[in-house]
Specification:
alpha+beta; seven-stranded antiparallel sheet
Length: 285
Amino acid sequence: MKKIGNWKKPLIIVLIVVIALGVLLLKAPLYAQVRSYAVMWAYTKYENSKSLMDKQQVSVQIPGGSSTEEKDWYPFVMVFNDNKGFSQYTGRDLSLSILYNFGAFSWNYGSSTLYKDDSPYYASFYGGYLIKDNSGQSKYGFSVDGKLNNNEIMAVAKYDYQKLILDGLGCPAKQQKMNVLSSEVKSGVTYAGYEGWEQIDAIILVNSPAHKYEGSRRAYIQYGNPLKKTSLEDFPLIESRARIYARYFKEFDSTVFLYILTPFADTLEQCDQQILSKTVIAKSE
């Protein structure tokens, strides 16, 4: 009995140490990063099974941050579907699947670099949209004569950034802006293995996602908590660069948009050349 009793004190010490380490881990930057990866990987698997890609039997493989040597972007591209919300927003019967990525997690802060104004990935996103007009009467993003429909392109960009991203982060609707300051269009562009893309380059005035932490939000699961100390006002207006590639795919009866949004010219070109241009679009089996 005496021998068994000698084990009690060391066992209690071990339990205390384990509990203490567990508490520290929950507070550590690494925890937020691991939580984000685990939750978003599982959620993306689920959303992908319900996506327009699955229904139309099309594979859209956009490389994630793990495809580069640098710790630049989130390791994998995520998927989100919002047929109902986008249909209500536009007043049309549409299917929408969003593929997206943002700045990688910072080891020091346990949150995405999209919050950090001194990072080249500040307020930066890339990804794609697949949109199908379920009425079968139009090709989303294009007019009857095949020209770009700027209003429809802005509609999906605004819906994604304002209704999904900014709303999720707590930016008041009255503060939200997305205004095109200038734009340029190139037609007949060859991209991602296909001819016939329309390329739009624009400078836009838009809210940054940077803001102070004031309470838990579901969006923080994927992005991490915002910086608690920042010299910036919440959701400040910034000039950002947008590049969008648009093409209607008859074989999938859907319009595909590939996009980059970032304040920095170097980040845009680097993302385009190293990541987005390597997107693979093909019929899935």
